[in-house]
Amino acid sequence: RKDSGILVSWNIENEKNITHYEIERSTDGINFNKVGKLASQSLSNYTMVDKSAGESAYYYRISAVSVDGEIKKSGIAKVNSIEKNTLITVYPNPVKDNNIQLKFGEQESANYNIRLINVDGKVLFTKAIRHMAGTNIESIKPETRIAHGIYQLEISKQDGKVEIIQVLF
């Protein structure tokens, strides 16, 4: 991935009788469509930027077309999708020093209500957090010492969505 597209590059060892190269893209690695064409220029390295590619995973291959119409296809190369860090995570998990580090990955600005719940369903701790947009870390330290065990951290957003993370103390 490069800037707002995908840079496709390939090396040539012997370009004898090649008229042009066709750059093909696929979303499944099986069915390919032509997304570019470059004329043979007797180079050892060619590049093309696929500006029409989105954030999904793609597969690319190059077809070398000779003067007599023969087509030789390259191997297939995969470009992974863009993964946005949109999760809310706890680290370290198990929690150290009774301090929960809550990482907000690319979350929108919102108010969050946090509850720490034990295996019996008892709420041990609550806290309201105002998160500003983007990625940042909130430190949550319950006032009382939490005993070793497995707990649920319930994170409620103002839109009603709830995320539950299993936390070890």
Give the topology, please:
Elements lengths: L5 E6 L6 E9 L6 E7 L5 E6 L7 E9 L4 E3 L3 E3 L8 E9 L2 E9 L2 E8 L5 E9 L2 E7 L9 E8 L4 E7 L1
Antiparallel strand pairs: 1-4, 2-3, 2-5, 5-6, 5-7, 8-9, 9-12, 10-11, 10-13, 13-14
Q: Could you provide a short overview of the structure?
A:
This protein has 169 residues and is an all-beta fold. Helices cover 0% and strands 59% of the residues.
Structure description:
It is rod-shaped, with a radius of gyration of 26 Å. Strands 2, 3, 5, 6 and 7 form a five-stranded antiparallel β-sheet that branches. The protein has a four-stranded antiparallel β-sheet with strand order 11-10-13-14, with no helix packed on it. The chain is mostly beta strands. Helices cover 0% and strands 59% of the residues. Strand 10 (110-117) and strand 11 (123-131) form a beta hairpin. It has strands at 6-11, 18-26, 33-39, 45-50, 58-66, 71-73, 77-79, 88-96, 99-107, 110-117, 123-131, 134-140, 150-157, 162-168.
* Shape field: rod-shaped
Radius of gyration: 26 Å
Strand content bin: over 45%
Could you spell the SSE succession in H and E letters?
Answer: EEEEEEEEEEEEEE
Main beta sheet: 5 strands, antiparallel
Number of helices: 0
Estimate the helix proportion, in percent: under 10%
Count of distinct strands: 14
Uncertain residue segments: none
Based on secondary structure, the structural category is mainly beta
Please, what is the average pLDDT? Answer: 88
Ends distance: 40 Å
